[in-house]
Design brief:
Monomer. This is 3-phosphoshikimate 1-carboxyvinyltransferase. It is found in: Cytoplasm. Keywords: Amino-acid biosynthesis, Aromatic amino acid biosynthesis, Cytoplasm, Transferase. The protein is α/β, with parallel strands linked by helices. It is built from 12 helices and 23 strands. A 4-stranded mixed sheet has the order 2-15-17-16, with helices on one face. Bound molecules: shikimate-3-phosphate and phosphoenolpyruvate. The site of phosphoenolpyruvate (PEP) has 8 residues, from helix 3.
Length: 449
C-alpha cells in the first residue's frame, strides 16, 4: 500500500473512530449578519447586532460600510453595559448610521453578499465608490444589479461584462422606481435592490423576468428583515403579484437584533452524526427561521437520520444507515456540497437537481464536486442542473477546495469515513467559519460537551 504524501498546505481530515456525540455551538448566520449590517447602516438611528458572525465575508461588509462613513464599533459586551436582556452578553456590534460619502474603495473579496448588496448603497452615497475583489469575483454575475441600478438612475463605469471591477458614481440619492431583472443566476440581485430601496426616492418595484429563481428562502429573509426594521414590502408570498416585489420609501428603525446561528454552517456537524451513526446537538436552533439550512432537518432525515427540536437545541441522530436521495435543491443551493459529500457515502444513488446556478458560486461547484469525489474513487456525473452520485468505495487523496469554504467542509465530511483524505487549503473556511478545523476536532474528541 502506498502512503499519501503529507504537505504543509494540506490538512489531514480526521477519521471518526466511532459514533460522534457532541454539542456544537455554531456562530452567527452570514446572510443575516450582512443584511443586518446594510439595514442598520441605512437606518435613521443607531442599532445593535448581537452575536454577529465574525468571518471574512462579514468583516469585508463591515469594512466597506465604514469606508462609506458608517460607524461600526465592535464590542464584547456584558448585559450590564448595554441595554437588552440576557442575550446582551457576548460579542455585539453597534452600528451608527451617517451620511454616505466617497471617494472610497471597497474590497468585496469573493462575498456574493458584499458584491451584490453594496452597489445600491453606493448609489445613495456621494462621490465615486470603486468595487474590486478576488479574481473569482470578476467572474461572478453582477449584471442584474448593474443594469437595474442604471435603469433606476445610477451612473456606473464598468468594462461592459456585467461584472466587477466597477465604479459607482454616487449622486447622494437615487430616483428608484420600476425595474425588470433576470435573477435566474442569483437571488442576491433581488435582495440587493430591495435592501436599499426604502432609501430610494420612489422606493422600488422589482419584476423578475427569468424562467427560474434560486434561493427563495434568502429572498424571504430579505423581506422579513426589511419588515422588522419598519419597511413596507409587497411580495408574491403574501398576496402580491408573482415575481414582483415592491418596497415603499420610508425611514428605517435602528433595531437590537440577535443573529441566529448559521444553519448552513451547522451542516457538516449534522452530517457527522448521520455518517457515524452518532448524535450532534446544535444549541439555539431557531423554531422559526427563513434560513435555508432549516431544510436540513427534512433532507438529512430522508437520508437516514432523525431529529428533534428540544430546549437544548436541535438534536440530530444518525441511524448508522445513509440513504441516497432524489431532491430539488434550487431553494437551498448552498447546501449542495455537503449533501453531495453525504450522498457519496450512501447505500444507494442520489440525484441532486435545480442547481445549475452553482456553476457561478465561489467556484463551479458542480465541476469541483464531480472532479474531487471522482479522484477519491467516486462515480459522480454532472447533469444540466445538478449531479448524479453513485456511491463507490472511496480511497484517500488530496481534496482540492478551489478557495471554496463549502468544498473544504464537504471534503472533511468524506474524510470522516475515508482514511487519508487531505484537504488542500482548509483555511478557506474563514469565508464564513474561521474556526472550522478546531470545531471539527473538538466535535470528534467530545470537547465542549
Ligand atoms: O442572499 C444570501 O445571503 C445568499 C443567497 C444565495 O445566493 P444565490 O441565490 O446566488 O445562490 C446563497 O447561495 C448564498 O450563500 C447567500
Ligand atoms: C454561495 C455562497 O456565498 P456567496 O454569499 O458568496 O454567494 C455560499 O456561502 O455558499
Amino acid at each position: 500500500m502506498t502512503e499519501t504524501p503529507v504537505h504543509p498546505a494540506l490538512w489531514p481530515a480526521p477519521v471518526a473512530s466511532g459514533a460522534v456525540d457532541a454539542t456544537v455551538t455554531v456562530p452567527g448566520s452570514k446572510s443575516v449578519t450582512n443584511r443586518a449590517l446594510v439595514l442598520a447602516s441605512l437606518a435613521a438611528e443607531p442599532g445593535w447586532l448581537r452575536r454577529p458572525l465574525r468571518s471574512r465575508d462579514t468583516l469585508l461588509m463591515a469594512e466597506a460600510l465604514r469606508a462609506l462613513g458608517v460607524g461600526i464599533e465592535e464590542t464584547v459586551s456584558s448585559s450590564s453595559s448595554v441595554a437588552g436582556g440576557p442575550d446582551a452578553s457576548g460579542e455585539a456590534w453597534r452600528v451608527i448610521p451617517a451620511g454616505l460619502h466617497g471617494p472610497a474603495t471597497i474590497d468585496v473579496g469573493n462575498a456574493g453578499t458584499v458584491m451584490r448588496f453594496l452597489p445600491p448603497v453606493a448609489a445613495l452615497a456621494d462621490g465615486p465608490i470603486r468595487f474590486d475583489g478576488d479574481p473569482r469575483s470578476y467572474e461572478r454575475p453582477l449584471n442584474g444589479v448593474i443594469d437595474a441600478l442604471r435603469a433606476l438612475g445610477a451612473r456606473i463605469d464598468d468594462d461592459g461584462r456585467g461584472a466587477l471591477p466597477l465604479t459607482v458614481h454616487g449622486g447622494g440619492a437615487l430616483d428608484g422606481g420600476r425595474v425588470r431583472i433576470d435573477a435566474s443566476s442569483s437571488s442576491q440581485f433581488v435582495s440587493a435592490l430591495l435592501l436599499s430601496a426604502p432609501r430610494f426616492n420612489q422606493g422600488v418595484e422589482v419584476r423578475h423576468t427569468g424562467a427560474t429563481l434560486p434561493s427563495m428562502p434568502h429572498i424571504r429573509m430579505t423581506v422579513d428583515m426589511l419588515r422588522s426594521v419598519g419597511a413596507q414590502v409587497d411580495e408574491p408570498e403574501t398576496g402580491g403579484e408573482p415575481n414582483v416585489w415592491r418596497v415603499s420609501p420610508s425611514a428605517l428603525l435602528g433595531r437590537d437584533l440577535t443573529v441566529e446561528p448559521d444553519l448552513s454552517n451547522a451542516q457538516p456537524f449534522l452530517a457527522a452524526a448521520l455518517i457515524t451513526g452518532g448524535k450532534v446537538t446544535i444549541p439555539d436552533w431557531p423554531e422559526r427561521t427563513t434560513q435555508p439550512g432549516d431544510q436540513l432537518r427534512r433532507i438529512f432525515t430522508e437520508m437516514g437520520g432523525s431529529c428533534e427540536l428540544t430546549e437544548r437545541g436541535l438534536v440530530f441522530t444518525g441511524s448508522g444507515s445513509i440513504h441516497g436521495i432524489d431532491v430539488d435543491l434550487s431553494e437551498v443551493g448552498e447546501l449542495t456540497p455537503g449533501i453531495a459529500a453525504v450522498a457519496a457515502l450512501a447505500d444507494s444513488p442520489s440525484t441532486l437537481r435545480g442547481v445549475a446556478h452553482l456553476r457561478l458560486h465561489e467556484t463551479d461547484r458542480l465541476a469541483a464536486l464531480t472532479k474531487e469525489i471522482n479522484e477519491l474513487g467516486g462515480d459522480v456525473t454532472e447533469t444540466a442542473d445538478g449531479l448524479h452520485i453513485r456511491p463507490r468505495r472511496l480511497h484517500g487523496g488530496i481534496f482540492h477546495t478551489y478557495d471554496d469554504h463549502r468544498m473544504a467542509t464537504a471534503g472533511s465530511i468524506i474524510g470522516l469515513a475515508v482514511e487519508g483524505v487531505q484537504i488542500e487549503n482548509v483555511a478557506t473556511t474563514a469565508k464564513t467559519l474561521p474556526d472550522f478545523p478546531r470545531m471539527w476536532t473538538d466535535m470528534l474528541t467530545g470537547a465542549g460537551n
